[in-house]
Amino acid sequence: MDAKIVLAELQFKAVRSSGAGGQNVNKVSSKVVLSFDLKNSKSFSDEEKLRLELKLYSRLTADQILILNCDEDRSQLKNKAIVTKRFLDIITAGLVIPKIRKATRIPKSVIRKRIKDKKSLSDIKKNRRKPDF
User: Fold this and answer.
1) With respect to CATH, is domain 3-94 assigned 3.40.50.300?
2) How, if at all, do strands 65-70 and 31-37 pair?
């Protein structure tokens, strides 16, 4: 994944933030909405698109568009930087290929130890019983 090509495909929109904040909220468009069209992206191969589509299924719209919001800061530039970093983190996490687990055998010494521990616990419980005459 080339970050420069991906960042060139992003679309940003500044919107007025909601919530408390007084006059600043009513006047300034500091909230940033990032949208990324995964289906029409030229920076990912078909295999990568499929992997991202499966991993980001709950975050994508019906048109395969990823939408992220950020209104954490009063500055539009800081919000843009935050949402861009969040986007790159999501994409890199979505492209990670999980390692395939290799099945291993249980060592004989571990099996022997488990059986020995069971036997010793059994002996302890036998000794607690009343004697059978």
Assistant:
1) no
2) antiparallel
